[in-house]
TrEMBL record:
Gene3D superfamilies documented for this protein: Beta Polymerase, domain 2
Location of the Adenylyl/Guanylyl and SMODS C-terminal sensor domain: 291-415
Signal peptide coordinates: none
Source organism of this protein record: Leuconostoc litchii
InterPro entries: AGS_C (IPR040511), NT_2-5OAS_ClassI-CCAase (IPR006116), NT_sf (IPR043519)
The entry's keywords: Antiviral defense, Transferase
Phylogenetic classification of the source organism: Bacteria, Bacillati, Bacillota, Bacilli, Lactobacillales
Pfam families: AGS_C (PF18134), SMODS (PF18144)
A molecular function GO annotation: nucleotidyltransferase activity
Keyword Signal found: no
Protein name: Nucleotidyltransferase
Domain of life of the organism encoding this protein: Bacteria
rRNA processing as UniProt keyword: no
Length: 423
């Protein structure tokens, strides 16, 4: 029987790890852009000089689905001297000037200059090009058009070199970085790529055993646990030492929850169920029920808000406890109780949303009696289900607004028909 770890490896290899063909669109477009900029600014036809590919692509932690590519193009110092003599927002003027040069090569391509970048739309994504200038300290000045304009400092080379050093020591570095990116993207979690790579670097350096022995699953669960312990919002970036704000710490709670659930999973089936929650229905180890439906087949995923999910547990009409309390204490629910699942949306969620529910039963009893379910049903913010038979079941909630899923959550429902308790 194929283990959940083997399915995880298959997901990484077949779905997340980019091939040279996957990167062709980006690299071919980049060479053309660099050649045009070099011809204009440096009087050379080179398509490789004066450019630094930064971001996850530069650190080689990107996935097959990477859509945005961060690129620095180094301009001659004379260009900065010329713009520094101008008035008003000179940084905005510089971005516009660079965009106009690229427009000469790509007159039919969507180009935008805003903030710190010139955005170049490709067939399968966007190049976000940042014009920069060398500094004596090996760092770079780059334009920030916000708040009237200013020069900021970046240091991608040290970050790239650190990533290379860590990946040379830890084969699992890029593997786990890609798995976390896949989880983040599917769940709509706000977690910057450089923060993923930085925290993963710190984690591995604190756990040197993973440099010579590991399973993908064990490292993933341990790193999710590590993410769940993060409490700050400002991080010191790997290599460069620059500070970055992640803006949102929801990722820590989500990481802890998945780590705890995976540790508590009793078999491969339950782990594969959790991986399908993390990565989506295409996870290879997940066996869909005969009547199961999937939210991404009917609605666009645009996660922007949060929804909390719990259930009141009732016996003979009287509330005895809540599901979250059962999960916290690792108890299992008895048979023949009523569970009233309730979704609590965040205050900033739009009005007039609709609630869609999915109940997925797991275990030998559900399979043998064709009770796995998995259909998506519309209901109100409260959905009631009985505890009928043993298994680690799952209930999911989707909050939909204008054909978009804007919030989602799930909760595990551990039922033991023989040894379960009522409170």
């Amino acid at each position: 029987m194929t283990s959940s770890n083997e399915f995880l490896q298959e997901w990484l290899t077949d779905t997340l790890t980019p091939s040279s063909e996957d990167d062709d669109d980006f690299e071919n477009t980049l060479k053309s852009v660099v050649k045009k900029l070099n011809s204009h600014y440096w009087d050379t036809d080179s398509d490789t000089e004066n450019v630094i590919v930064a971001g996850s692509y530069g650190r080689k932690t990107h996935t097959k689905r990477t859509s945005d590519h961060d690129v620095l193009f180094i301009l001659p110092p004379t260009v900065k001297e010329q713009f520094d003599k101008r008035q008003n927002n000179i940084q905005s003027q510089l971005l516009t000037s660079v965009k106009d040069v690229i427009f000469e090569r790509y007159p039919k391509t969507a180009l935008h200059s805003d903030g710190q970048v010139v955005s170049i739309e490709m067939k399968k994504g966007t190049i976000e090009l940042i014009p920069v200038f060398d500094r004596p300290d090996q760092k770079f000045d780059f334009p920030n058009t916000n708040a009237g304009g200013s020069w900021e400092v970046t240091n991608p080379n040290d970050e790239i070199e650190k990533a290379i050093a860590v990946s040379n020591q830890f084969q699992c570095y890029r593997e786990i970085a890609r798995l976390i990116r896949s989880w983040r993207s599917f769940q709509g979690i706000k977690l910057k790529g450089i923060v993923i790579d930085t925290l993963l670097c710190e984690f591995l350096e604190e756990n040197s055993v993973y440099s010579f022995t590991y399973t993908l699953e064990s490292v993933l669960i341990d790193f999710l646990t590590y993410l769940g312990e993060q409490s700050g919002s400002v991080y010191t970036m790997m290599g460069s030492g620059d500070l970055i704000d992640n803006d949102d710490q929801v990722f820590a709670d989500e990481a802890k929850r998945y780590a705890d659930e995976l540790k508590d999973a009793e078999n491969n089936e339950e782990k594969n169920q959790l991986y399908s929650q993390m990565f989506g229905k295409k996870f290879p180890g997940y066996n869909a029920a005969a009547s199961e439906t999937f939210i991404e087949d009917s609605y666009s995923m645009a996660i922007q808000y949060t929804v909390a999910l719990d259930a009141s547990i009732k016996q003979n009409g009287y509330r005895t406890s809540t599901l979250q309390r059962f999960l916290f204490s690792k108890r299992k629910i008895a048979k023949d109780l009523q569970l009233a699942f309730e979704a609590q949306i965040s205050d900033d969620t739009p009005h007039n949303v609709k609630y869609l529910w999915k109940v997925r039963n797991v275990g030998s009893y559900a399979k043998s009696h064709s009770l796995e379910r998995g259909e998506i049903l519309r209901d109100k913010k409260v959905h009631v289900e009985p505890s009928s038979f043993s298994g680690n079941h799952f209930v999911e909630i989707y909050v939909v607004y204008q054909q978009n899923v804007i919030a989602r959550n799930y909760i595990r429902v551990p039922i033991d028909a023989i040894n379960g308790v009522t409170n």
